[in-house]
Amino acid sequence: MKGKKKKKSKRLLKIQLFVALILMISGAVVYTYGYLQESKIPEIELEKAYDLWLDEDVIFIDVRPFEEYDEGHLSLARNFPINNESAFISYIVELDKDENYVVYCNKGVSSLKASEIMKRYNFPNAYSLIGGFNAWKEAGYFYIGIEP
């Protein structure tokens, strides 16, 4: 009889732990979703970024490593690599927060991280370029660099 009670008790404990784990995971998902909704990083379409570039009404920030920047970049783009976050922050704190910024990397992933940091440092007009430098080149837009 004692063996059955012990087995039942262990089973009940496992169920309770499983339910607690599910509730914790659900809470983390809801919290993360809320954070992502609240901190939505503004992105900019390629064509809009190109128009701003033509009008010279924007400052482009290339967040790729120096070597990649040297291989090709947008003219007048500033190179602040995001692979060293503290150095990136030291670069951006010197910038005018009222300017328009388009941040780009190769594909548009690292630029999201950089734009998030800029948002945290109160840059209201910092946008991540959708598709990044690769999309810019594929569209046939002008850039400075080594031709393939």
Q: What can you see in these coordinates?
A:
This protein is α/β, with parallel strands linked by helices and 148 residues long. It has 2 domains: 38 residues; 103 residues, Rhodanese-like domain (Oxidized Rhodanese, domain 1). Helices cover 53% and strands 14% of the residues. The chain is built from 6 helices and 7 strands. The chain has a 5-stranded parallel beta sheet with strand order 1-6-5-2-4. Strands 3-7 form a two-stranded antiparallel ribbon. Strand 5, helix 5 and strand 6 form a beta-alpha-beta unit. The radius of gyration is 23 Å and the shape is elongated.
Task: Briefly say what this structure is.
This protein is α/β, with parallel strands linked by helices and 148 residues long. It is built from 6 helices and 7 strands, in the order αβαβαββαβαβαβ.
Question: Which helices and strands, and how do they pair?
Answer:
Elements: H1 2-38, E1 43-44, H2 46-55, E2 59-62, H3 66-71, E3 72-73, E4 78-79, H4 85-92, E5 101-104, H5 110-120, E6 126-129, H6 132-138, E7 144-145
Parallel strand pairs: 1-6, 2-4, 2-5, 5-6
Antiparallel strand pairs: 3-7
| CATH architectural category of the largest domain | 3-Layer(aba) Sandwich
Class derived from helix and strand content: alpha/beta
Order of helices and strands: HEHEHEEHEHEHE
Terminal CA distance: 79 Å
* Overall pLDDT score: 86
What attributes does this structure have?
148 residues; alpha/beta; Oxidized Rhodanese, domain 1; 2 domains; five-stranded parallel β-sheet; two-stranded antiparallel ribbon; 6 helices
